[in-house]
Design a protein that fits this description.
The chain is an alpha/beta fold and 241 residues long. The protein folds into two domains: 3-136 and 179-231, Spore Coat Polysaccharide Biosynthesis Protein SpsA, Chain A, CATH 3.90.550.10; 138-175, no CATH class. It has five helices and eleven strands. The longest helix is centred in the last third of the chain and has 17 residues, at 221-237.
Length: 241
């Protein structure tokens, strides 16, 4: 199967200016996603951007670049139009039709090559519409231990049951709960053309559970600092220089 990596990288960033270009542990943030993808089973690695400086850095680190129209580079736009633009550009300009798209958010510099390869293997072996990188949800963040306030002021469990019916042990939860990690998504392009709603999931969804040691979320300067600490810890653990 021809599976391509798509790294979406807008030039604008409100919380951390020029986030994708900012140095993260010795390289521009976006470089880490490119480098891990280049070593993987992906057929091609493509950065979608509206920014010429990002495009230059991406090419310098070995990625292909597809320039994104301005209307696809605003905060309010979802990821689906960007993925469709990459898919359609390759198809129309090169006659290249990808069988799968691996969405690699550049804000996950802790992503390893094996994460990409393992998600691709699940995607192919299970004939899935999509594979999502996930972590098991912490007990207090599951619906079973989530509290809400009802319109009449009563505090209940998420499903409306009184707190006295709460499960007292995590082991008694009827199901495991998972949270998307944004580490990786692999999907069929057909999902983007669903007549009901363009989406990245499709009908047959498989989960790729990863360790929380690889999960970072970089939206604030504080989260950036935390991510660098985690990244450096992983480098040391893996014997990197």
């Amino acid at each position: 199967m021809k599976i391509i990596g798509v790294i979406p990288a807008r030039g604008g960033s409100k919380s951390i200016p020029k986030k994708n270009l900012r140095e993260f542990c010795g390289k521009p943030l976006i470089a880490w996603s490119i480098l891990s993808a280049k070593e993987s089973k992906l057929d091609r690695v493509i950065v979608s951007t509206d920014d010429l400086e990002i495009a230059s850095i991406a090419k310098e680190h070995g990625a292909e670049v597809i320039m994104r129209p301005v209307e696809l580079a605003i905060d309010a736009i979802g990821i689906e139009p960007t993925l469709k633009h990459v898919y359609e550009t390759l198809k129309e300009k090169e006659g290249y039709q990808a069988d799968g798209l691996a969405l690699l958010m550049p804000t996950s510099p802790t992503r390893q090559t094996f994460h990409i390869n393992e998600a691709i293997d699940i995607f192919i072996d299970k004939k899935a519409d999509s594979v999502l990188g996930v972590n098991e949800t912490l007990a207090n963040h599951t619906p079973y231990w989530t509290l809400i306030r009802q319109p009449d002021g009563r505090v209940t469990l998420f499903d409306g049951q009184p707190l006295k019916k709460i499960l007292t042990r995590r082991q008694d939860f009827p199901n495991k709960c998972y949270a998307r990690s944004d580490l990786i998504y692999v999907l069929r392009p057909d999902n983007l053309y669903d007549p009901e709603r363009s989406n990245i999931y499709g009908d047959q969804v498989e989960l790729y559970e990863t360790s929380t040691i690889y999960e970072v979320d970089i939206n604030t300067p504080e989260e950036w600092e935390d991510a660098e600490i985690k990244f450096q810890r992983l480098q040391k653990k893996n014997g990197a220089a």
